[in-house]
Amino acid sequence: MPTQTALGVLRGRPVPMLRALARGGWKERGTCRQTDPELWFADTSRRTKARAASICASCPVRRPCLAWALVFDEEFGVWGGLDAAERFPLQRRLTTGEPLATVLAAAMAAPVITPTSPQAA
Length: 121
Prior knowledge:
Elements: H1 6-10, H2 16-23, H3 38-41, H4 46-57, H5 62-71, H6 84-95, H7 100-109
């Protein structure tokens, strides 16, 4: 039996955000475009991931960036401030039918770990 993906759950539903994500114009406004691309896909320390997440925290397109990663099952990198392991529980929520807007709202309300946070050590 194939694994259900977030996109599979959302397919066929009138979700305006999916249309906006597909257009991709949000990517041009990302704060990440002003930094080294390696930062977002670095497979290194928690400090590096925390630095990427802290840049995402004030990004004007954090929400659509995270939505993209969740809906299209991005396997690698930091998207919307979260790495793949942090996104996994959110993807699971989508595959059980929870609305994308609800999942995103919960993710946006969670604190972002920065390089100076105790969790980032």
